[in-house]
Write a structure and sequence with these properties.
The chain is an alpha/beta fold and 356 residues long. The protein has helices at residues 2-24, 87-93, 116-129, 145-154, 178-181, 185-199, 201-208, 216-219, 228-234, 245-248, 251-265, 299-308, 330-340, and strands at residues 44-46, 52-59, 67-72, 95-100, 136-141, 159-165, 286-291, 312-317. Strand 1 (44-46) and strand 2 form a beta hairpin.
Length: 356
């Protein structure tokens, strides 16, 4: 018995020691690229606060385009994300795409003062420096959706149209009724992760890089996170290269993910369900694209948001998971709805469906 108590005490003391180290002896956030980072190879702009944002352009030349679209990537991704639209369609409609590394991702400098509002201001300054004109379209994917909500809140006058693709939700938004979210296990996971992000980020970094935890390649095949179509996508798609254990051991990478997660899921200065229609004359629209089988973000919450904001056009992929942006034909459907107002009946939600 004495030996058991002694061993338990050692474990508890060790845990408390790690907690102390994690909460009191973290180095300050880095405000520039790490010294060992290779020099950037992508074009970058310099923001007013001195940070750099890296970007890449695709589609038709900007000066010949009819539609200019900024695509905002999600968690652990980058400007190299795939958005596969038919080249014939891109050429026919004259679509120019601008993809950029959000603060701290890829070849962009981190923003230690990152907030929901700063995301919209980065997008506005990027568009101004690259001379996109007075208005542009925004497509936000997954975690990139909080940057997109920020655009509707802070720079609605710059928007020509908006599309959310499997947007993450913040369980702290006041408009969510308790009976809709109280038993959602994802809410509890987010709450736990936020506690660690706030009080023990170093312990969280240690935890997620342990050898006995499953690798991201194992997680990407796990039906707990992804449905059948998602798992098929991950067989031919790089997945989440920034979330590997080797990457997470790098303090700069971990800090970026840590600050991004906190900005997305902590308290916001506004509730999206209180926002006004950025296109009151119906000159354009706002769209949400959601997978019915998404195991990361429940479709029920997206339907609720759309019911509270009737100016949002809601589309649902019947057998879609969280990676619908990679499904064949989806990017074309997203663009046709956003730019031309075309809607496929295949993606009209069936309200009678029930998810177990």
């Amino acid at each position: 018995m004495t030996g058991m108590i002694s061993n338990t005490a050692v474990v508890v003391m060790g845990f408390l020691g790690m907690l102390y180290m994690a909460t009191t002896q973290l180095p300050p956030p880095q405000t520039s690229a790490l010294p060992e980072d290779p020099p950037p190879t992508s074009p970058r702009i310099r923001l007013a606060d001195g940070r750099h944002l890296a970007y890449r352009e695709s589609g038709v030349p900007k000066n010949k385009s009819k539609f200019k679209i900024i695509i905002v990537h999600g968690f652990g991704s980058s400007k190299e994300m795939s958005f596969q639209a038919p080249q014939e369609m891109i050429d026919e409609l004259g679509i120019y795409f601008l993809l950029y590394d959000r603060a701290g991702y890829g070849e962009s400098d981190p923003n230690p003062k990152r907030s929901v509002k700063s995301e919209a201001l980065d997008i506005e300054e990027l568009s101004d420096q690259l001379q996109l004109g007075s208005k542009f379209y925004v497509i936000g994917v997954s975690m990139g959706s909080y940057s997109t909500w920020s655009c509707i809140k802070y720079i609605p006058h710059r928007l020509a149209g908006v599309a959310f693709v499997v947007p993450v939700v913040n369980y702290r938004w006041p408009s969510f009724p308790d009976n809709l979210i109280k038993d959602d296990y994802r809410r509890k996971l987010v709450q736990s992760a936020l506690w660690f992000a706030d009080y023990a980020p170093g312990l969280m970094q240690w935890w997620v890089t342990q050898k006995w935890l499953p690798s991201t390649s194992v997680m990407e095949r796990n039906p707990v996170f992804f449905n059948t179509r998602d798992i098929d996508v991950l067989k031919t798609t790089p997945g989440f290269p920034m979330l590997t254990k080797d990457k997470l051991r790098q303090r700069g990478v971990f800090n970026t993910l840590h600050l991004d997660f906190k900005a997305a899921f902590s308290h916001w200065d506004f509730d999206p369900m209180d926002l006004s229609n950025p296109f009151p004359q119906n000159q354009s629209g706002v769209h949400i694209w959601q997978g019915y089988e998404d195991k990361v973000v429940p479709f029920q919450l997206q339907r609720y948001i759309s019911s509270k904001l009737p100016w949002i056009q809601y589309h649902e992929v019947p057998d879609g998971g969280h990676l619908i942006v990679h499904y064949a034909g989806l990017c074309e459907a997203i663009l046709r709805a956003l730019l031309l107002g075309e809607e496929s009946l295949h993606y009209k939600p069936t309200t009678a469906k029930i998810v177990s």
